[in-house]
Amino acid sequence: MTIYDRDEPDDVEVIDRWTDGVGWVAHPDEDGRRASHALRGEDGVWLLDPIDAPGVDDLIDDLGAVAGVATLSDYHARDADAFAARYGVPVHVPSVLDRAPNRIDTEIERFEGSLGNSGFEALGHAPFPGWSEAFLHRPADGTLYAPDAMAAEKGTRVGDERIALYLLLRLAPPRDLLDGVDPQRVLFGHGAGVFENAGTALDHALANARRNFPRAFVTGGWTELKLAMAAFR
Of 69, 139, 195, 224, most Cβ neighbours within 10 A? Predict the structure, then answer.
């Protein structure tokens, strides 16, 4: 079992695609399924937590000129600096992140609130010591991006959940932070997104997070612990 594949990728898997964006996994066979996204904004294309792989440039070019790169979790420095150098743009890092800037070797722009002129607003999320990320939300088209807090494809879903919060987050679900957010699509930093009845799926995940904690712990607690330990490397 390979949690995070650190070798040079030789393929890319497209996992999300819609008019204004595309998502890909650079290491399709790894268990962590680290996902990257390119989203068209009002000022150009924004690359979110990107990992490089053959064919990625073509996916990006189909959307337009790159406006910037954004690292949105303390554990998602990934290939942000390589993409920033390639396209001649800085890496935007939310002010809530402490760890990631030390792992990015290029120009960094710290920000709060708006991500450039992309139309996205950053929602800082630091529920526990050592866990800092920022959701991105764009009300204009109902896009929500969650770097680490939740997933659909790789999350430990129980019962009729279509989105799963990661185990520890079930004890402190970000209900207040996401209050009033009614997404048309939810994208994730790990695995494929949710495009059908996404708002209902998100509401259900947040409302039942604590109630479903024991089942999630039994079903996937050990797996999530291994994923978390691998992320610290």
Answer: 69
